Amino acid sequence: MGVFSKNSVVGVIGAGAMGSGIAQVAAVAGHAVVLYDTNTAALDKAKSNLEATLRKLEEKGKIHNAPEIMSRCGFATTMDAFKDCGLVIEAVIENLDVKKKLFGAVEQLVSDDCVLATNTSSLSVTSIAAACKKAGRVMGLHFFNPAPLMALVEVIPAVQTDSALISDAKELMRQWGKVPVIAKDTPGFIVNRVARPFYGEAIRIYEEGIADIATIDWALTELGGFRMGPFTLTDYIGHDVNYVVTETVFQSFFYDPRYKPSFSQKRLMEAGWLGRKTGRGFYNYAEGVAQPEPAKDNALGERIVHRVLAMLINEAVEALHMGIASAKDLELAMTKGVNYPKGLLEWCDEWGAQKCLDILDELYHEYHEDRYRASALLRRTAASGGRFLSAK
Ligand SMILES: NC(=O)c1ccc[n+]([C@@H]2O[C@H](COP(=O)([O-])OP(=O)(O)OC[C@H]3O[C@@H](n4cnc5c(N)ncnc54)[C@H](O)[C@@H]3O)[C@@H](O)[C@H]2O)c1
Question: Is 154 a residue of the active site?
């Protein structure tokens, strides 16, 4: 594991949803862990939740030493507790200034060889690293929610990151039972970039009146094989969270129309209709309210699946073209990070690049919008009759 070992103390900044999950993963993997938060109520809640979760895992036979794991976990309201850490992972609010200040401060307290990681979903790891004197020790380790259950971790080298640390970080993540992939430090990394059309194109189809939400959800689950339709899924994620990621990715890509947010979702957010957590989003979850029935029209359903999937495949191909990740890592990211039924490049190979290109070109000619432009790599692959993955 190079710079890391089982004896490395792991510090986690922020005891919210992600920080407490990451602390649990590190502790169960055998590390002593220090969880720090400025909010004592959050820290108390994280401590009691961790105790309860470890107890449940022990009851289920998944672990056999809950009290010992718990005894390795410290809960702190000052960062002095990080002085012996070999790795500190930050998971506080998604705000660049807050994160930069924290990294500048934590660097003063830890030893010279302590690695600093951020769990940011959308900010530039390079900007965060720039707040440190030893920027070479900073990287992104992007876990997915809930961290103990989701296998994927995007390992993101900043421009400044010491390259030797990356293979050590990957190995450490494997030791923690995770599936690490390497992603270039660009907005949304892999998953939050490539998955955008699953939401954006589905909402566009709904806004144009081509189909209602229940029909689009039905098409993508029943015909497309996705576990959840985009409207059910965004209601789960919360429109505050999902909309903000879309808007951030859109702005960070210099307003590329491929990532343009939708007014439907913005209005839901403004109305406070955030999804399941508020009882209403695209669907109404109030007791006694019947859910809308899909129009189970196979021809319409196929059209919806083709349009959304062609957009998703195009994103994956463009990410490959731009060197955001390897083909293998792109496939792992979408199957392990968002549970897609198969990797998008594999899907493209099954379809044939020409079919995907034809769907996109038809949309492009109909709408005359840059949103539907096909990746040059997709066009090249279609022309050569090539594939993205070696044949099985
Ligand atoms: N929630 C997700 O689905 C998800 C998934 C992947 C990554 N992320 C990223 O993880 C990070 C944390 O997200 P979350 O959902 O866990 O947030 P959260 O709101 O649940 O928790 C954030 C915690 O950080 C604490 N905090 C805020 N400022 C602090 C400071 N200066 N010092 C110490 N503690 C501070 C808060 O008290 C809170 O307990 C964000 O960068 C987010 O983008 C979130």
Answer: yes
